[in-house]
Amino acid sequence: MAEGDETQQMHDGAEKFPAKTEKLFTYLQVVSAAFDSLAHGANDVANSVGPLAAIVGIHQTAKVDSKVEVPIWILVMGGAGISIGLLTYGYNVIKSIGIKLAKITPSRGFSIEMGSSIVVIVGSNLGIPLSTTHCQVGATVGVGMCEIRGASTVWKGVNWKIMAKVAAMWVLTLVFAAICASSIFGILVAIYQPQIEPLNCGLIARKIANVGNISTTATKDSQKARFKSYDSNGDGALDDGELKKVGWNKNLKGDKLVEKFGRRRRRTPKTMTEKDFLSFTCTSNDNLEHLLYKNCEPVCLDGFRANKELSCKIKPAEDADGNFQLATYYSGFSACE
């Protein structure tokens, strides 16, 4: 059966009310439409302009607050955008929800609009971000299900194929919106990233100098020689067996770098190369940079092992004049045990 035939059959099978009753509800529906507009303004406009209001607030006050003053021009812009969207593309949604999903008459429309607007207004008053579209679709389905008069009519009041499409789109739009937003943000960050160079945490040697049982001879050359001594078959890579011989088959709890070569995670290298080994032992570079997100394990004396991996992190701070700036610090590793 074609979609148009199903819609016509659904409309023909719906209960018909007296013409005078429906005419009375045409006036009442003006009131319900006003409530619906209030609900749209209280929730949808707030949801849409919320991120912009937060950005403007941070720009004006130079600080992050849980609540910000929303300029009237932002609200006007959000309301104008919703109105323009209704005038240009709203017909397609009205056709799907108002005609194809269930039979809508003035009395039914009044119930749908009042039911959904009450839920949205109450939610807005409680500070809960709701979707008026979801509420109205739910209200439409609820009114359509009132056509049920028995087991044989369960499927007649609502076009469940349309409802299934709507539900599927609710899920898919989350995915597509996330992809679009992350792509746009990634492009903007790449273009306008204000930080020219990554911040580093300073010399690793200075951080570990006062740690007991630490190796003071761990240099890039010494670790290259150490790697070759571990590489018993001379293939330029350390496998599980070779790592196990030197006690490096065991991973530190939560140490993602070590876990990478311990293969606790899928799709990871099966062997550790010399480059990996130098990076792993904190001898590949003199310092760690926070943007690279590379952690390492300082070399301890034989019989000892680092308690945690060493990482470089950033935190907000102030300079001598009280201006905002970012500070770096080493985190994690603190002892050889």
TrEMBL record:
<keyword id="KW-0812">Transmembrane</keyword>
<feature type="transmembrane region" description="Helical">
    <location>
        <begin position="72"/>
        <end position="94"/>
    </location>
</feature>
<dbReference type="GO" id="GO:0016020">
    <property type="term" value="C:membrane"/>
</dbReference>
<protein>
    <recommendedName>
        <fullName>Phosphate transporter</fullName>
    </recommendedName>
</protein>
<keyword id="KW-0592">Phosphate transport</keyword>
<dbReference type="GO" id="GO:0035435">
    <property type="term" value="P:phosphate ion transmembrane transport"/>
</dbReference>
<keyword id="KW-1133">Transmembrane helix</keyword>
<feature type="transmembrane region" description="Helical">
    <location>
        <begin position="166"/>
        <end position="192"/>
    </location>
</feature>
<dbReference type="InterPro" id="IPR018247">
    <property type="entry name" value="EF_Hand_1_Ca_BS"/>
</dbReference>
<dbReference type="InterPro" id="IPR001204">
    <property type="entry name" value="Phos_transporter"/>
</dbReference>
<dbReference type="Pfam" id="PF01384">
    <property type="entry name" value="PHO4"/>
</dbReference>
<keyword id="KW-0813">Transport</keyword>
<dbReference type="GO" id="GO:0005315">
    <property type="term" value="F:phosphate transmembrane transporter activity"/>
</dbReference>
<keyword id="KW-0472">Membrane</keyword>
